[in-house]
């Protein structure tokens, strides 16, 4: 199987495409009735690489494909702590279409918000093929979360990548759903904890590029949830800033609350006039977008 053209940055030039991956790409090219595909697999098995390949090959086959990235930590597109929706951009790469802030990068901790986000973004994706990437948590609470993610996303095809022993039971929970099992590439490489942390930091930093302090009038702000430590938010808490319709516009880092001026100050790229809602997160970021330890809730 020839490699895709090196001009496309969606798929790295060095990608290995196992014959079974190419087989799935042909299947999707020929079956317009398959509109929602969920990729499952353990951590570091090649889920993101497979999603990139399928997005590229579906586009090349003339389908309008989009990517729903439900992995909250290791993002393909958009900031961490968010479910994101992306599409292939002009000149290769991915462009962010929409996102839903869920508050943290640990999937089980923010499962309810993540499930709502998956359902919302799947409903608004303007694509005839929607590929969903997932986190690699398969055991215990991860297995229950996978069942809930399947219920929110309603795939018409499950793709199980790699041979993790928990994949069998997860697929068996959904006997009515068609399934493709694919092998991982022999070129898969494990990421260290440090590499993961760095990838999250860089993805946050890309989102906050060009941010500046913004004063948000408290009277105009509908709050969702509460800051972790009670009435006073911990320093530099991450928040989601949405418009009055509830559509996320940008993330923010809380710099302080000024009750005298009745404003909350946040570091953000958001246009203040568009913001009408604030969703409290459970993560804090320093000036360089490193995640900060928070006092226990
Ligand atoms: N088919 C492949 N060809 C080349 N490298 C791959 C392939 N699949 C995975 N890798 C490499 O293995 C690592 C993990 O892959 P990734 O797609 O990030 O896994 P996951 O999304 O499941 O955590 C990455 O460095 C990636 O480049
Ligand atoms: Mg990934």
Main beta sheet: strand number and arrangement? Answer: 7 strands, mixed
Rg over CA atoms: 20 Å
Strand elements, count: 14
> Counting H and I runs of at least 4 residues, what is the number of helices?
6
Helix coverage percent: 25-40%
- Helix-strand makeup class: alpha/beta
Question: Low-confidence parts lasting 5 or more residues at pLDDT below 50?
Answer: 1-8
Shape summary: elongated
Cα-to-Cα separation, first versus last residue:
52 Å
Q: Which percent band covers the strand fraction?
A: 25-35%
The hetero molecules present are: adenosine-5'-diphosphate, magnesium ion
Q: Strand order across the biggest sheet?
A: 4-3-2-5-1-6-7
Mean pLDDT, as a whole number? 93
Give helix and strand order, one letter per element, not per position: HEHEEEHEHEHEHEEEEEEE
